Amino acid sequence: MYHKTLLSPLKLTDTLTLKNRMIKSPQSTMYWDDDYFMSDRVIDFYESIAKGGVGLIILAGILWYPAHPGGIYGALYDDKYLPGMKKFVERMHRHGCPVFCQFHHTGPSSPSDDKGGRPFGPSRLEQEEMASPLPYLHATRELTLEEIEEHKRRYIDAAVRAKEAGFDGVEVHAAHGYFLASFLSRVWNRRTDQYGIQSFENRTRLMVEIIDGIRERCGEDFPVGVRINGEEYGAKGAMTLEESREIAKILDKKGVCYISVSGYGFGPLPMTYVPDYFPYPEPEDYMKPYMDRYRGDGVYAYCAEEIKKVVNAPVVAVGRMDENKAERILSRGKADLIALGRTLWADPEFPNKVRDGRIDDIVRCTRCATCEDPPRGARRCRVNPAMGRETELEIKPAATFRKVMVIGGGPAGMECARVASLRGHHVTLVEKASRLGGRLFLASMIKGSDVEDVKPVIKYLTRQITERSGVDLRLNTKGTVELVAKERPDVVVVATGGTYALPDVPGIRRWNVQGVKTMSKLAALPLRVLGPDRLNELTRLMLPLGSRITIIGGQIEGIQGAVFLKKRGKNVAVLETSDHIGEGIPPRYMERAADWLKKKEVPISTGVTLQFIDKEGVHYRDDQGRECFRKSDFVLVLTRQTPEHALADSLRTIVPEVHVIGSANGAASSLIVHAIAEGRAMGVNL
Ligand SMILES: Cc1cc2nc3c(=O)[nH]c(=O)nc-3n(C[C@H](O)[C@H](O)[C@H](O)COP(=O)(O)O)c2cc1C
After folding, report:
1. What's the pLDDT band for 197 if we cut at 50, 70, 90?
2. Which residue's C-alpha comes closest to atom 21 of ligand 1?
3. Domains within the chain, CATH numbers bracketed
4. pLDDT at res. 587
5. What single string gives the DSSP state of each residue in 616-661?
6. How many angstroms is it from 27 CA to the middle of ligand 1?
7. Which residues line ligand 1 (CB under 6 A)?
C-alpha cells in the first residue's frame, strides 16, 4: 500500500479514532444563510466532503459572538442556531465522519467592531503602530478585563452548544491574526496585565481559560483541538518558531487532542489572512530563503515538525498537500495528521481515491486562487464546478438517453462530454487537433507551473474522456455541418472557443503584428514535442520576437503575456483601450503582477486609442488625447475573446437542439473556471 501512514487510523481520544490521517482543513465557504443560519448549501457541500472519506471535518467560521456580516459565517452564540447545527452534524455522521466546530472571530483584524467602532484586540494600537500598512489592518481598541471575561463566557457557552448539537469536538482557532492569535503575538499584544505579553503563561492565559472552561462544562473527555501559527512573518514582533513551541508545550500540558500548525504573514506580502504564498510572478527577495520549503513540504510543514519534537499531542501539518507529500511527512514522523483545504475543495473524493489507488482520477487544485475571488463572495473552485452547487450539478442518470455530439475538446467540451456520457447519453466528442486540451497547453506554457499549474486539468479530463467514460472520441476531426448532417445527433454542443479578433486599425495585418491565433499555430508543434514546461524553459533561452514588444490588451491575456515576456528579458509595454486592466485575473495574482510589472518598469497605458501600426511600431493617442508612438520590433495582440457562433448558427437548421458553451460565448465565459462550469452545467442538463 503506497500511502500506508496516510491511510492508517489515529486514536485522537479514548472515544474518538479517526479512520485515516486526513482532516478537512477549516475554510470559510460563505455559503451560510442570512443571520448566520445553517443552509442546505453548507450541508450539501460538507456532505460531499464527508462522503469522500476524510477522517475528520473541521467546520470553519462559527461565531461565539454576533459580529461580522451574515452569509460569511455560521454561529452558535444562541440556541436558535442549534436545530441547523444538529441537522448538519447528523448528515456528516451518516457517512461515518466525525466533525469538529472551529470557533471564529476576526478580532483585531476586523475592519471594525460590531458597533462600527475600532476593532477590539488585546491592546490599543494606532494605524502607524500596526504591523504593516495593509489596508485590512485598522487601529484597534483594548479589550477591558470585563470584556475579556464576557468573550470567554460566550466562547464556552458556544462550545457547550456545539456539544449539544452533536459535534465530536471543537477547534479553538488561535491562528491567522484573529481574536486568540492576537493575544499570543507581540504584534498585537502589548498588555502588561495577566493577559499580557511578558510571559508565555500570560499570553496563553485566555486560550487556556477557554480550554479549561470548555472541559469543565463539556466534560474532560470532550475533544478540544487548537490551531496556532507555527510562525508569523513580515512584522516586528512576529511570533517566532521558538515562541510557538513554548505555546504548544503549554497546550500539550492542557491535554488538547491535537495542535494544528498553520502560519501567518503580515503584509506587504505573502501568507496573509489566507495562509498561502503565491510567488507570482517571482518570489520577493525576503521570501527566497523560504522557497526550498515552499517547493518541498510546504511553507509551514517545518513548523509542525519542530513543534512535534516538543509535544505529545498529535500535530497537524497543512499547506498545499498531496498524497505523496502527506505520506512523506507522516512516515518521517514530522506530523501525525494532515489538514487538506483546497485539495478537498478540488476533489472531495480525494481520501477515497487515495485509499482505492485511483490516483490518476484525482482532480487537482491548480492554485489559481479563484476560491479567494472575490475575497468575500461564496467560494467557487475552478476545477470542481459542483463545489457549493452539489445538488444543482449532481451527475444523475438521464431520463432518456440521447445522441449527443460535442464539438471542441477544450475544457468546456471535455467536461460536458464526460458528464453527459456518465449520465448515459451516447456522446461523440469531435476535436480538430490530434489531442485533447485545446488552448490549455498554450495557457499552461505561458503561466508556467511554479505557482499555478494547469497541466493536471488537461491530464485529468483527458483521462476521464479516454479511459473513464464511454465517449466516442474523434480526434483530427473537424466539427462541420457535413459531419453533423451525416451523424444526425439529437443535440450538438459547440465548444470550439471564441475568436481572438484583431482590432480594426491600419497596419494590423503587417507581418510584425500577430495575435493569439497565429501564436497558437506557431506554438502547436513545439508544444506537442516539448510539452508546456520545457517550452516555457526553452523560451527563456530563445524567443525570436525581437527585443521591443508592444502588447495590445491589458486584461488577463495581455498581463500574463507581459509577465511572460518581461521574464524573458524583453522590453515590454502594454496598451489597453478600456480604462481598466487585469480582468480575469484573480486579485491574489493581479495585485502581485501589477506590482511586479511596475517594479520592472513595464508601462501600462489605459484609455488609449490605437491609430495605426507601421514597421516602426504603434501609433496611438493616450487617455489625454495626445499623439504617442511606441517603437516596437513586434506587436502582440492579446485582447479578450469575442463570441463565435457561426458554426452553432449554421447547425440550427439541421439539428433540433444546439448549445454553445465556454469561450465560444466570448470573454465572460473564457476562463478555465467558466469553461469547466459551463461544461458541467450543460452535461447535467442534457
Ligand atoms: C479561501 C480560504 C478560506 C480559509 N478560511 C479559513 C478559516 O476560516 N479558518 C482557518 O483556520 N483557516 C482558513 N483557511 C486556511 C486553510 O484552512 C488552510 O490552512 C490553507 O488553505 C492551506 O491549506 P491548503 O493548501 O490545503 O488549502 C482558509 C483558506 C482558504 C484558501
Report:
1. very high
2. 341
3. 10-350 (3.20.20.70), 403-499+644-685 (3.40.50.720), 540-637 (3.50.50.60)
4. 84
5. SEEEEE-TT--EEEEE-SEEEE----B---HHHHHHTTT-SEEEE-
6. 5
7. 25-28, 60-61, 173, 175-176, 227, 262, 274-276, 318-321, 340-343, 371-372, 379
Q: Which residues have CB under 8 Å from 518's CB, separation 6+? A: none
Residue nearest atom 22 in ligand 1 by C-alpha distance: 319
Confidence of residue 410 (pLDDT cuts 50, 70, 90): very high
Ligand 1 atom at minimal distance to the Cα of residue 26: 17
Pocket test for ligand 1, best of 27, 347, 363 (most atoms within 8 A of CB): 27
Q: How far apart are CA 500 and CA 515, in angstroms?
A: 7
Of 404, 380, 334, 376, nearest to 71 (Cα)? 376
| 495: its cell numbers | 465548444
pLDDT given for residue 303 in this prediction: 95
Q: Pairing between strand 120-121 and 657-660?
A: unpaired
Measured in angstroms, how far is the CA atom of residue 11 from the centroid of ligand 1? 24
State how far the Cα of 282 lies from the Cα of 489, in Å rounded to an integer.
49
Residue scoring higher pLDDT (65 or 184)? 184
Out of 173, 274, 278, give the residue to mutate to test ligand 1, the one with the largest number of ligand atoms within 8 Å of its CB. 274
Render 202-226 in DSSP notation, one character per residue.
Answer: HHTHHHHHHHHHHHHHH-TTS-EEE
Q: Which residue's C-alpha cell is 483585531? A: 108
HEC secondary structure over 168-184: CEEEEEECCCCHHHHHH
Longest Cα separation, the chain: 83
Q: Provide the pairing of β-strand 403-407 with 491-494.
A: parallel
Overall residue count recorded for the chain in this entry: 686
369 CA → ligand 1 middle, Å: 12
Residue 526 C-alpha to ligand 1 middle, in angstroms? 38
